[in-house]
Write a structure and sequence with these properties.
- By secondary structure, this protein is α+β, with helices and mostly antiparallel strands.
- 32% of the residues lie in helices and 25% in strands.
- It has four domains: 6-68, no CATH class; 73-147, GMP Synthetase, Chain A, domain 3 (2-Layer Sandwich); 154-214, no CATH class; 218-283, SH3 type barrels (Roll).
- The longest helix is centred in the first third of the chain and has 27 residues, at 70-96.
- The protein starts with 5 loop residues before the first strand and ends with a helix.
Length: 284
């Protein structure tokens, strides 16, 4: 192994995932554009890490072909512009063949040896005839890739209910499993429509916020639990673990107190953590 061999992470414009490549070019730095070869072909990528002497993966990595030059940058920009026209043509030809496909994107490899069309469809599509038509038009390899609604939201992007760019488009690389139990951990009303993102599935934020909410609730009673506070019996009718307050009600009146006060002065059965974990496992 060469003493000059370094490892760097790169990211492609169409994905938030990073990939590791090796290089002996000591001039490559974070933010540089490089040309690499992937399973899809020769591609243009941006370096997103400083060089490292050890790879962050446990499998053999491919070398970077070269640092991108002005011609590579110009070709990349030209490919992006022409891919939009290619997308339009693919959709027109698909419609002409009466294929139920919604073409989301088109992407050329840097050397234009292949173009990848990404599409959304409810069922499997027999696109053999479409492949022949597209190959005759573009004179290169054609790859038709079907994706789901979450992938489409990631590619198209948009603004979420929080007012920020969709998490999937901004930083999420891989999609994790999301369960309705995660909404329960946040004490949210189980309204699927309000809990769903633009893809129609449960919002990704439920997943990466889940551990924080579990930690905040670990010593607290459940919602609707019976508690005794200052000599009176109440039922917990609402709880906000972020604001750290709750509402206690009985037949006579309702009071608002802090969760710290509830823990300090209230009497209730503390949650059984083992049983909670078992219930969560079953629910997921």
């Amino acid at each position: 192994m060469s003493e000059n061999l370094k490892y760097i992470s790169v990211r492609f414009e169409t994905t938030n995932k990073t990939y590791t490549f090796s290089t002996e070019d000591g001039s490559i730095r974070n933010g540089d554009a490089v040309v690499v070869e992937t399973q899809r072909g020769v591609e243009y990528a941006i370096v997103v890490s400083d060089p490292s002497e050890k790879p962050n993966v446990d499998f053999e990595v491919k070398p970077i072909i070269r640092k991108a030059n002005d011609r590579d940058r110009q070709q990349f920009e030209r490919n992006k512009a022409e891919a939009e026209e290619a997308k339009r043509i693919c959709q027109e030809e698909s419609d002409a063949l009466d294929l139920q496909m919604n073409v989301i994107s088109a992407e050329y490899t840097l050397d234009r040896a292949k173009i990848t069309f990404t599409y959304l469809a409810d069922d499997r599509v027999d696109f053999r005839e479409l492949l022949k038509v597209l190959a005759a038009i573009f004179h290169c390899r054609i790859d038709l890739r079907q994706v789901g609604t979450r992938d489409k939201a990631k590619m198209v992007s948009g603004i979420g209910v929080c007012g920020r760019e969709l998490c999937c488009a901004r930083f999420i690389g891989d999609f994790d499993r999301i369960s309705i139990n995660m909404a329960k951990n946040q004490l949210l009303a189980l309204n699927i429509q309000k809990l769903s993102g633009q893809c129609g599935n449960l919002m990704c934020c439920l997943r990466f916020e889940d551990e924080a909410y579990k930690d905040l609730r670990k010593d607290l009673p459940k919602l609707n639990a019976q508690v005794e506070y200052e000599g009176e019996k109440f039922r917990i009718t609402s709880m906000n673990v972020i604001a750290k307050n709750c509402k206690l009600e009985n037949r006579d009146h309702a009071i608002f107190i802090s969760l710290d006060e509830l823990i300090k002065k209230g009497k209730y059965n503390k949650p059984n953590k083992k049983n909670e974990r078992e219930k969560e496992s079953v629910a997921e």
